[in-house]
Amino acid sequence: MGIFSKTPKSHPKITVEGIEITFHQEYGGWAFTYRGAEFSSFESALILPSKVEVDSILDTVESLKAEMRTRLQKGLSGWGESKVDDGESYSIDVQEFVTDKSFTVSWSDGASWGDLGVDFTIKDHAITDESWGD
């Protein structure tokens, strides 16, 4: 490190009930990991769901995972060699949860997908919208 080099600033963090929540200035959003799932919110002010609500969100995602994977397979069938189980991952956006109890599960990063991704909006334990894009 040179004389004029600055030490990189760490991301601001808070911890609530053992969950470490980080603000990422480069993309203007909050992120945390809980029970192995990645959560995010892109609002400047994070209104964190309670731990009980986060558990409920994860239970809902788990119960809908087979349906989401079926929809992924169907949607990817029109994209040549793209397929499910190709390294894809998902994250959960809780930005709208406090206001209308909906959240979005975003799937991406499949090796054969390129920059393609799909968002499933979930409310009341059901998929209410599906949006594909790159």
What does this structure look like?
The protein has 134 residues and is α+β, with helices and mostly antiparallel strands. It has a domain at 46-133. Helices cover 22% and strands 36% of the residues. It is built from two helices and eight strands. An eight-stranded mixed beta sheet has the order 1-2-3-4-5-6-7-8. The longest helix has 26 residues, at 51-76.
The Rg value, from CA coordinates, equals 17 Å
Biggest sheet strand order reads 1-2-3-4-5-6-7-8
Q: Please bin the fraction of helical residues.
A: 10-25%
Question: What structural class do the secondary elements suggest?
Answer: alpha+beta
The fraction of residues assigned to DSSP E strands is 35-45%
Order of helices and strands: EEEEHEHEEE
How far apart are the termini? 38 Å
Q: Choose one word for the global shape.
A: globular
Q: Tally the helices.
A: 2
Give the low-confidence spans.
none
Q: How many E-type strands?
A: 8
Q: Tell me, rounded to a whole number, the average pLDDT.
A: 87
Oligomer: single chain
Biggest sheet overview: 8 strands, mixed
Could you write a compact summary of the structure shown?
The protein is an alpha+beta fold.
List keywords for this structure.
134 residues, alpha+beta, eight-stranded mixed sheet, 2 helices
